[in-house]
């Protein structure tokens, strides 16, 4: 993990870092890198008692903050060449021309989450990356789950093509589709701690700022094969009821992810997430993909949230991919559905044409007209060939008669 801190320090101080102002996110990471160095704890202490102590503290957190709402602003910096682009304007012969964005891009989004136990509603309002246009457009994204369904909705954003109409998904698996996103992890690990299944107490301790942290690792330190697997570390502060200050991940010793959470003290709910900073890296060392920094603007805990808030109704005009029913349709007025057949989907029939045709008939009129034109041309050709043959036969017959003196 020391390599992880050094790598962050190199990025923050300017090496291989392009176009981002050295403030805010970068200063935060410089502080994290400078004060996140591990220090030896000496001989390993028995795991069981300390792990039980941490688990008990986190269980109390989960019971205390069972339901609530959070709102925050989040700054996201996408590194150059790290976003997928299917832009038709890009020269397909040159792969480098498809790398987007061309320079580091920072956007500001507003995020909110409501939760009640396992029920979650998550929304993001702000610039959204569009792969077809290779650019950011203002849009709204929502995901929600209840006991029956897990859904997500991408609102209309782009003026044409991909993003020009809302698109919804009904997911086959339960739970919230975005539960693994870094910003939701920051809220939930801050309020509820993490899962200790498979974790052990590390022989190392670490410092984050002035806080000496216990380090829990998902890799057993005597496992020689573990270098080829993913490893997760939790850094917890025993002085603040085992608040989880850092989550970091490596794969085959390469750093891939780090999230650092700061807290404010609440008289009722104790340590509540106040802000967080994180990075996502590609698996090959030295390739940073995303940096983000969030500041909480409002939170409510211990409140009653209507069950209806965890239901997501798709608005009229939404194109829906329902993975549970293996169905593809457009939501029409009155709650009816215009089914998009597999042949229509394979043919890539435009959305606007699907809206004004019956299921299975989109494009058929055009194909019929083409068929009629083709048949007409064929009939004309056959007729002309027939006429030519008749003329030719008559000419040959007339010539034969003359030769024979008839």
H/E series: HHEHEEEEEEHEEEEEEEEEEHHH
Question: Helicity range of the residues?
Answer: 25-40%
Whole-number mean pLDDT: 79
Say what oligomer this is.
single chain
Query: Major sheet: size, sense and barrel closure?
Result: 17 strands, mixed
User: What class, by secondary structure content?
Assistant: alpha+beta
User: What is the overall silhouette?
Assistant: globular
In DSSP terms (H or I, runs of 4 or more residues), the helix count works out at 7
Number of strands: 17
**Low-confidence parts, pLDDT < 50 over ≥5 residues?**
1-34, 89-96, 365-406
Q: What is the distance, rounded to the nearest whole angstrom, between the alpha carbons of the first and last residues?
A: 110 Å
What does the model show?
The chain is an alpha+beta fold and 406 residues long. It has 2 domains: 2-308, no CATH class; 367-406. The protein is built from 7 helices and 17 strands. The protein has helices at residues 2-12, 25-35, 47-64, 182-192, 342-347, 351-355, 364-403, and strands at residues 38-40, 67-78, 105-116, 119-130, 135-145, 150-154, 167-170, 200-208, 211-217, 230-237, 243-251, 254-266, 270-281, 288-301, 319-322, 327-331, 337-339. It has a 17-stranded mixed beta sheet, with helices on both faces. α1 runs antiparallel to α2. It is globular, with a radius of gyration of 31 Å.
């Amino acid at each position: 993990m020391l390599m992880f801190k050094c790598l962050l320090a190199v990025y923050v101080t300017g090496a291989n870092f392009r176009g981002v102002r050295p403030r805010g996110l970068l200063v935060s990471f410089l502080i994290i890198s400078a004060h996140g160095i591990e220090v030896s704890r000496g001989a390993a202490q028995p795991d069981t008692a300390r792990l039980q102590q941490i688990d008990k503290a986190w269980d109390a957190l989960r019971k205390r903050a069972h339901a609530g709402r959070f709102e925050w602003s989040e700054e996201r910096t996408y590194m150059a060449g790290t976003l997928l682009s299917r832009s038709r304007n890009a020269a397909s012969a040159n792969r480098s021309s498809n790398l987007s964005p061309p320079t580091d891009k920072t956007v500001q989004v507003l995020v909110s989450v409501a939760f009640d136990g396992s029920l979650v509603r998550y929304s993001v309002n702000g610039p959204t990356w569009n792969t077809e246009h290779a650019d950011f457009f203002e849009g709204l994204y929502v995901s929600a789950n209840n006991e029956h369904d897990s859904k997500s909705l991408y609102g209309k954003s782009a003026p044409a093509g991909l993003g020009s109409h809302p698109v919804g998904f009904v997911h086959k698996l339960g739970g919230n589709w975005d539960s693994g996103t870094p910003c939701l992890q920051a809220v939930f690990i801050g309020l509820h701690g993490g899962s200790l299944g498979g974790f052990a107490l590390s022989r190392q301790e670490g410092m984050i700022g002035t806080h000496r942290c216990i380090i829990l690792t998902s890799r057993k330190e005597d496992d020689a094969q573990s270098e080829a697997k993913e490893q997760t570390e939790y850094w917890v502060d025993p002085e603040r009821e085992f608040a989880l200050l850092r989550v970091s991940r490596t794969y085959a010793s390469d750093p891939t992810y780090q999230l650092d959470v700061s807290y404010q003290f609440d008289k009722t709910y104790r340590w509540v997430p106040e802000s967080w900073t994180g990075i996502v890296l590609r698996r090959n060392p030295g390739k940073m993909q995303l940096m983000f920094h969030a500041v909480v603007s409002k939170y409510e805990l211990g409140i009653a949230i209507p069950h209806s808030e965890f239901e997501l109704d798709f608005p009229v005009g939404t194109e829906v991919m329902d993975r549970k029913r293996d169905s593809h349709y457009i939501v029409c007025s009155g709650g009816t559905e215009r089914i998009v057949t597999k042949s229509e989907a394979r043919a890539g029939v435009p959305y606007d044409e699907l809206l004004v045709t019956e299921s299975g008939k989109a494009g058929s009129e055009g194909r019929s007209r083409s068929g009629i034109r083709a048949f007409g041309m064929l009939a004309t050709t056959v007729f002309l060939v027939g006429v030519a043959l008749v003329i030719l036969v008559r000419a040959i017959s007339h010539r034969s008669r003359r030769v024979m003196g008839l």
